[in-house]
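Encode chain A's predicted structure.
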Amino acid sequence: MTRKRLLGVHGARRTQSALWPTPRRTTDRAAQLPTVPHVCLRWCWWSLHSMEHAAVVAIGAAVGGVARWAITASPTPRVGAAIPASTSKAFPWRVIAVNMAGSLVLGVVLGRSTGSSQKTKLLVGTGFCGALTTFSTFAVDVVQLCEASRFGAAAGCVAATNVGSIAAAAAGYMAAKRWSSPGSSLL
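Encoded structure for chain A:
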């Protein structure tokens, strides 16, 4: 390598990372590549860091998925008794309620962006809310309503889910911003 290539902007020598060796002065291209231990060290650090985040998301998703199942699919009157169960002929109130509740919680988590850690956002936002809310069930409910020739109910379901979820997310976001500002209280 030439001296010009080793010098950075303004003639300062470039610093090398501890995991990447200083470039060798050779014409052999293979000798200039990082060695296997250096690549493995970087990969191991990245994978351990990612596995920790994946575990946090998985825990939140397990809780959110079970909560959604308990609310939307439970035949027992004790769980979700205030909201009628969804069938192909019934209006999917439980799915709409779950999507709105998840949007509200996600709005609160993201509204408290200064007070929430990355792991909290992954646990509650990505894991719990991601598993709790359900776009696929919402889509199937709309298709089933259309198949039953209940086009007005299908349009109402689309409107209620989208408008209600956006309104819930906005309400949660604004409430969290207000409550997390200095000098404010919950009441």
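The chain has one domain: 37-180.
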